[in-house]
Structures
1.
Amino acid sequence: LAGLRGGAGADPAANSATEKIASCLRSQIKDEGGVAVMVVLEGEANSFDQGMLIKRVLEMGGGMVRRSLAEIDEHAERGEDGYLYLSLESGERKRVDVVYYRAGYDPSNYPTERHWEGRRKLEESMAVKCPDVFGQLFGAKKVQQVLCIEDERARLGAPRGSEGVEETWVGMWPLTDFPAVRAMVARGDKGYVLKPQREGGGNNVYGREVLPALDAMEEGEREGYVLMEAISPDVFTNSLIKDGEVKYEGECSAEFGVFGVACYGADGKDLLEGKGGGMGYICRCKRVGVDE
C-alpha cells in the first residue's frame, strides 16, 4: 500500500476512490440538462457506497439518479439527437449523458423483456457507458483464459517474457480437451476453480466440487466454463469485527483490488484528457476457507 501511495512513509489508509470516480463521472455530464444514471437492481440492498458516489457527484454540481433497467424502459425515450431523455418524478426530462452499471452483469438481472429493452435503449443511445456491452464482454472469464496464452498477448502488443508480471499469474484452461482437463483435476495435486463465462464472482465451483461438476456437464455446456488453478494467498492472523464485536479471530486472507477509470471516444480520443488511471483501492479480509 505504501508503495502505491507514494513510497515508504506514505499514509497507507489514504484512499480517494469515491472522490476520483465521482469526478470522472461528473466530467462527462455536459450541462444542467443532463444526468448520469446509475443502473441498479430493484430493491437493491447494497446501496450505501452507491449513495456516497451519488452524493459526491451532486456536490460537484452534476445530476445523478438511480434507476433499474425496467424503469429505463418505462420512463426514457430516445430523442432526435440520439440521446435518451429520462422523465423524473419532478416532471423534468433530463438527457442521459452517462450510464454507470451497478447491475446488468448476470442473466438473473434480466427477468423480463422490459429489462432487456431498457438495456437496448441505453446501449443504442449516445450516452457514455461504464461499461458498454463490449467492455462487459471483456470481463468474461474466457478473455482471462486467452490472455494466459503468450502468443495471444504478443498479438495484442504485450512484450514477451514480461519480467515479474507472469509470476503473479495462475494457469487457466478451456474445457475443449475435456479428457486432459478432467485427468488433471482428478490427480488432485493442485486446487482448481471452475469458472463460468460471467463477469465478477459468485458463480464459481471450488475444490472437491469441481470434479463432480465436470462429470455432470453435458458436452454442450463445456464452452461456458474455464478451469483455473486456485490462488493460494498469504495467510495471517486477524480479527473480524461486526457491530463493535469480534465475530472471528484466527487465520485470514486478504483481497486487494485497484479501481481504475479510462474513457475513450470511437476515434480513440482520451475523453478524460489524461486524468484517468488509478483511482484508489479496496482491501477486503475473510477467514481462511471462505471461497467467495
2.
Amino acid sequence: GMSSFPPKVVNGQIQVSWVEQVNVGIVATLRGNLTPWWLFGACLSTYFAASQGMPRVPIDTPAMGFHITMAFLFVLGCVWNTYHTPDQGPTLRKIHRAVGWFTMATGFISIVTGYEYILAGRSSLGFSTAVLMMSIGAGQLIFQALGIWFSTGIRCVRGVMWKEMHMTSMTCCFYMGCVLIGFNWLPKMITGAMLPGRAQANWTFFSCILGMGFTRVAVAYNKRHMDLRDKLPPDLAARLEAIRSKSQLMKSGSGTSYPGSVARR
C-alpha cells in the first residue's frame, strides 16, 4: 500500500497525502465500540424505526408524524454515540458532544409527543403495549436527565465517576429506550401482526427482561474497555489526587493526621 513508500518531508515537516488522510479518517470512523450486542441492538432498533415508524409519517396525523421523525432521529443518534465515544480521540469527542445534545433534544420531544398521542386516546395499541411504551418513555426521560446531569460534571474533580455514570445512563437510554421497544415489536416485524391476546402481554414482559439483560452486559463491557481516566488540567488533577489520598488515609484510620490544607487550592 501507500505506507510502503518513504514519507515526503518538506521544510522538516512530514507531508501526508490526502489519500492517506482519507484512509486514516475511514479507519477512525469504522473503529468503535463494536460488540455483538451493540450490532444486534443497532440493527434491531434502526430497522424497527425505519420499517414500522417512518412509513406512517405521510399517512398518519401531523403530530404522530412529528413524533415518529423525532424518535427515528433519536435512535440514529443513540446508535452513533454508543459506537463512537469520547475516548476515541478529540475529533470524535467533539462529534459525540454535538450528536449527544441533538439526540437529547429529539428524545425529549419524542417522549412528550408520544405521551400526548396515547393519553389523547388516538393510539390503537393494546393495553400492555401502551403501558410498556409509556414506561419506557418515563425511563428514557430519567436516563436522559441523568446523562445530561453527569455530563456537566465530567471536567470537575469527580471526573472518572461522572464519566462512568454518564456512560451508564446513556447506555441504559439506548438499550432500554430503543432496543427494548424493538424486542417488543419483533412479532409484528416477523409476522405482520402483534401476538393475540395474552401472548402479547407475556412477550412484552419477556422483552423487558431481554432489554435489561442487554443493558447490563453493555454497561459491564463498557466499564472494562472504555478509557475513563481523567484528562484534567494540572491544577484539577492535583486536587483530585489530594482528595483521593485524604480519602484513603481516612479509611485507614489515620485521617486526623492528614494536613487539611493539601486538599485546598
3.
Amino acid sequence: EGLKAVSALWFRFGTFSQTRPPPDFRLLDEMLGKPIVMRGLLFSASLGLAAGQQAGTMQPEVHPQMSMEDCTEGVCRREQTSVVIDANWRWVNKEGQNCYMNDNTWDPATCSDGKECAKTCGIDGADYQATYGITTNSDKDGVVLNFVTRGPYSSNFGSRLYVMDTEDTYKIFKLKNREFTFDVDVSNLRCGLNGAVYFVEMDKRGDWDGERNTAGAKYGTGYCDAQCPHDVKWQNGVANVDGQHGMCCFEMDIWEANRMATVFTPH
C-alpha cells in the first residue's frame, strides 16, 4: 500500500500573490456559463454500523466519467476513469439536517466533539452538474468546470476533483522517466482566478479503514497538501470541529494558471 501520490484537479478562486488585492466580485455573474475545460491526460510509457466518518444516504454518488490514454512506444491504450469531488464540498447531514452550518461552523447539537460528529453525521453523494457545475465534456475525455453554480439551496464556488482508478480508490500516477500531457481551455479564466493540476501525497483509499472512515475515496476524503490546511472538515475519520489540526503532505503543482499567466511549483 506504500504508494500515496494521486492527481488532484483543482479549480480554485484566488490570486498568485497574497499581496495582491482581492478580485472584483462583480465579475462573478459574468462568468456564469463560462466554464474551464480540462481534457484527459496523455501518459507515455507503461504506466456494520459506522463508528466514524460515514457516507450519507440522501444523494447517490455517481462519479463523472472521462477517459485517458496510456502510451508505450507509440501505441496508445484508452483507459476509462472518473473523477470525484473533495469531501469538503459535500453536504454534511444527519438524516437531512445540516451538521455544518451556513456560517461555516459545526452545529454544536451534533458536532460538539469530532468523534461523535463522525458517528452521527454523514457526507452525502454529489449532484455534480446541478450543485457543482461539473460535467463530462462532449468528447468524454475531460471535464467541464463552472466556477459559479447557482443551486436551489445555495451557490457553489469552485471545486476540487481527484482522478479515480476504481469506484473506491484514487488513481496512482507513477511518472518517473515518463511524461504526460493535458489540454485546458483557459479562455474564460480571467485574472484573479486560478485553475490547477497538481499531485499530492494522499492515501489511495482516502484513509478508508472500515472503522473510523467508512466513506473513503468514493466520497473524496483524505485531502492534504504542503500548506497544511486547517479547513479540511474530516481528518482520519474524525470531524475537525475545532479547526486546530492541519493536513500536511508533499505537493507538486504541475500547472496553476489563468489566461494571463502560468506557474508550476514544487513544495
